[in-house]
Every structure is written in C-alpha cells, then in structure tokens.
Design goal:
The protein is elongated, with a radius of gyration of 14 Å. The chain has a domain of about 45 residues. The protein is built from 3 helices and no strands.
C-alpha cells in the first residue's frame, strides 16, 4: 500500500519514510504558534522543522516556569 507523502524525501530529511503522525504534530504545533502556512512548513526539511519545534518548546517551557503566560514580562 502506498502512503500519501508530501514535502519530499531528500537527504535533508523530508517526509519520505517519516512517521505521518509525528509530521502532523510538528506541523500543527508550528502552525498554531507561529501562524506559518502549511505549504511553508511542508517545504522545510525534517531537521529544520524539528529545530523550530525545539525552539518553540524552550520558549513555552520558560514561559510556563516563570508564570508569564503572555510572554510580555
């Protein structure tokens, strides 16, 4: 059975062979917080998307630890 795979599968780590559920989670997370369009997120390499997920997770962690829910200080 062939899977519907978008975003390529090049050496940078596109979506080919990548767990579809994890791909959806990454895209939803970044789209929700950064308001980036789906097409832009899918054009990113897996490595770049993971980097942004990590950066956003760190921002959220810092905000949660400080109790600053809006990030305004």
């Amino acid at each position: 059975m062939q899977q519907d795979v978008r975003g390529g599968g090049g050496a940078d780590g596109g979506a080919l062979g990548y767990p579809q559920e994890q791909l959806f989670q990454e895209v939803a997370y970044l789209a929700y917080y950064f308001h980036w369009p789906y097409s832009e997120l899918m054009e990113m390499s897996h490595r770049e998307r993971l980097r942004w997920v990590g950066e956003l997770a760190e921002i959220n962690k810092t905000l949660n630890e400080s109790g600053d829910s809006d990030g305004l200080g």
